[in-house]
Amino acid sequence: MEPILCGVQAGTSVKDVPRVLSCIQPTGSVHLGNYLGALVNWVSGQHEADVYHGIVDLHALTVTDEPGVLGAQTLDLAAMLFAVGLDPQVATVFVQSHIHEHSELAWIMECTVSFGELSRMTQFKDKSAKREGEFVSAGLFTYPALQAADILLYDAQDVPVGEDQRQHIEITRDIAVRFNHRFGDTFILPKAVHPKAGARVMDLQDPTSKMSKSSTTENGIVYLLDENSVIEKKFKRAVTDSDGVVAYDRETKPGVANLLDILSACTQTPIDTLVSQYSQYGPLKKDTGDAVIALLEPIRQRFHELHNDPAELSRLLSVGNDRAREVAAATLARAHSAIGLLPRI
Ligand code: TRP
């Protein structure tokens, strides 16, 4: 049973499964680490819960100010989410800035969180320290209020996030508790959940670091849109070690272990089986590259099809936007009425 709030049934999920919200910023290209580490699970998870996936372009504004870039990146990310297999009929994929309720509820959240609470956010402290001497927007400071709005608007029960986002989910809960206490039960209290563990993909050139967009060398990162020949080359050049033995040990042989992890994730073959099949690095690199190519080629094709068909892409996005808007509008109305704002005339 969904909790009843203010006489309104919260969580209009018709699927009788938990409502789950994940959001992703449209910054940088999607790489193999994002795919095997998270997106694969988004795709399989769409049938297990009522999933909402927001492309949070307004959050990206806290660090991006180049004109004309964010829209294209948002569209590319949407095409990629559909290309990897999110089905707009099943998963609700939406663009944050297209649902004006996010900004509106964010203001209410800002008035429900204290300056002190926001000042204690480690992400703000880290990011603002890194930008020392540069422009630090107030948006970077109030970022968690917008994130709280993202979450509470959808009556999300579960929010799968990595460790770095736990504090933001905690503050969202604190805000929801405070609001409900002040104005009566309005928001569902969300909880952070550990995403199902995906493969931990490391940088091919520096296998002790996670594959990430902030990596220093492009050769270490495999992008979902890389051409086959580029993928092949990146795997051929992958850093291994000099002892020439194929064995799985993340501590002493991180490069080889990473190749085994990737090959295992792509082919659904247990690591032990793979270890017994290889005695040299050359064939292991070649087969891992080939397995990645086989996995990514259809995704890339679908991406390009969608990219070349903006009308279809807009149609797919509008399916999600419409569904998201309906839920968000109902929640914002509930919040307005709980506060006792003058009803619209
Ligand atoms: N802050 C998150 C990140 O940087 C992105 C995000 C925005 C988010 N809104 C959210 C994540 C709501 C989960 C739920 O990764």
From TrEMBL:
Gene Ontology cellular component list: cytosol; mitochondrion
EC number annotated for this UniProt entry: 6.1.1.2
PROSITE patterns: AA_TRNA_LIGASE_I (PS00178)
Cellular compartments annotated: Mitochondrion
InterPro entries (UniProt xref): aa-tRNA-synth_I_CS (IPR001412), aa-tRNA-synth_Ic (IPR002305), Rossmann-like_a/b/a_fold (IPR014729), Trp-tRNA-ligase (IPR002306), Trp-tRNA-ligase_bac-type (IPR024109), Trp-tRNA_synthetase (IPR050203)
GO MF annotation, one: tryptophan-tRNA ligase activity
Principal localisation: mitochondrion
Manganese found in the keyword field: no
Chemical reaction(s) catalysed: tRNA(Trp) + L-tryptophan + ATP = L-tryptophyl-tRNA(Trp) + AMP + diphosphate + H(+)
GO biological process, alphabetically ordered: tryptophanyl-tRNA aminoacylation
Keywords: Aminoacyl-tRNA synthetase, ATP-binding, Ligase, Nucleotide-binding, Protein biosynthesis
NCBIfam families: trpS
Family the UniProt entry places it in: Belongs to the class-I aminoacyl-tRNA synthetase family.
Protein name: tryptophan--tRNA ligase
Annotated organism of origin: freshwater metagenome
Lineage of the species this protein comes from: unclassified sequences, metagenomes, ecological metagenomes
